[in-house]
Write a structure and sequence with these properties.
With 187 residues, this protein is an alpha+beta fold. Helices cover 40% and strands 26% of the residues. A hairpin with a 5-residue loop joins strand 2 (66-77) and strand 3 (83-93). It catalyses: GTP + H2O = 7,8-dihydroneopterin 3'-triphosphate + formate + H(+).
Length: 187
């Protein structure tokens, strides 16, 4: 992704002026540069295909559930451009022993979260990425997050947690399997 740091810096200066601040005040002199650098990092997932994170696929003949849980992530609400953050839990059942490196599941979450987002989209995109690339028997994703747009503005309810889920394949059809994997992911 090619970030236009100068444009971000100009915009931040304008925002500071618009809220009645002096962007030339000592404490704010480097703020536009810091914000531009931060935005380049926070939005580093833009233009990336999360499927590219699944470049390492192995034949291990393991056809039972694989779960990586408590994957921390940070993202930016596309409605307010304020952070939301939490944990993702990702599970899949390999088909014909096709597995991927465990860190790849965390990398998918990171790539998807590092762009202006909605929690619901993160959840479904992670699930769809695994389906498209690994063709597993089933996929389950749970994302739990706190949204600063609900904490610091609007309804002002710190500590409120939002939970979203996406299931594919076997987990859509078999409610007992879905209940079991959700219990393992949240337990």
């Amino acid at each position: 992704m090619n970030v236009d740091h100068n444009k971000i810096e100009e915009a931040v200066r304008m925002i500071l002026e618009a809220v009645g601040e002096d962007p030339d005040r000592e404490g704010l002199l480097d703020t536009p540069k810091r914000v531009a650098k931060m935005y380049a990092e926070v939005f580093s997932g833009l233009g990336k295909n999360p499927e590219e994170e699944l470049s390492a696929i192995f034949n291990e003949m393991h056809e039972e559930v694989v779960i990586v849980k408590d994957i921390p992530f940070f993202s930016m609400c596309e409605h307010h451009l304020v952070p939301f953050y939490g944990k993702a839990h990702v599970a899949y059942i390999p088909t014909n022993g096709r597995v991927t490196g465990l860190s790849k599941l965390a990398r998918i979450v990171e790539t998807v979260a590092r762009q202006p987002q909605l929690q619901e989209r993160i959840t479904s995109t992670v699930a769809d990425t695994l389906v498209n690339k690994l063709e597993p028997k089933g996929v389950a994703v749970i994302v739990e997050a706190e949204h600063m747009c609900m904490t610091m503005r609007g309804v002002k309810k710190p500590g409120a947690s939002t939970i979203t889920t996406s299931v594919r394949g076997l987990y859509q059809e078999d409610t007992a399997a879905r209940a079991e994997v959700f219990a393992l992911m949240r337990g």
